[in-house]
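ARCHIVE CARD
CATEGORY: sequence design from structure
SOURCE FIELD: tokenized fold
FIELD CONTENT:
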């Protein structure tokens, strides 16, 4: 891991380079471009002061360690094989026909809902009014 002095030097270097880029962007492309470069340049010291650079370094190091152990560890490959088998089983299960539960008779298309047992008489009356006016 890098110490604070190294992170400080890294931050200072990129901030100065960003400042130079900001100046050239302002001179060549105008205020809008210069302000964009300044905004990006300020992200580097902001990341340093909030310790985000150190965190990103630790995340990168952890990913590199994981990848290195991933390549050489047979147990990891066994786990990958189990994961692949699981995905295959899910896909096969999704494509197989399932049992259909039929507890109610299917309603014929175009049948009035009022014909169903237990329907509300007020709703049947409203539906009849709508049908009389050609609204279905």
């Amino acid at each position: 891991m890098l110490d604070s002095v190294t992170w400080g030097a890294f931050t200072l270097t990129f901030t100065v380079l960003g400042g130079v880029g900001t100046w050239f962007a302002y001179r060549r492309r105008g205020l809008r471009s210069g302000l964009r470069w300044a905004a990006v340049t300020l992200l580097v010291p902001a990341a340093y002061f909030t310790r985000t650079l150190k965190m990103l370094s630790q995340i990168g190091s952890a990913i590199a360690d994981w990848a290195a152990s991933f390549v050489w560890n047979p147990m990891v490959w066994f786990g990958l094989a189990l994961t692949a088998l699981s995905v295959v089983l899910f896909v096969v299960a999704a494509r197989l026909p399932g049992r259909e539960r039929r507890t109610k008779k299917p309603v014929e298309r175009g049948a009035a809902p009022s014909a169903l047992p237990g329907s509300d008489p007020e709703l049947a009356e409203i539906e009849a009014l709508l049908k009389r006016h050609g609204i279905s």
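CARD ANNOTATION: The first helix runs from residue 4 to 29. The mean pLDDT is 86.
SHELF: design records, drawer C
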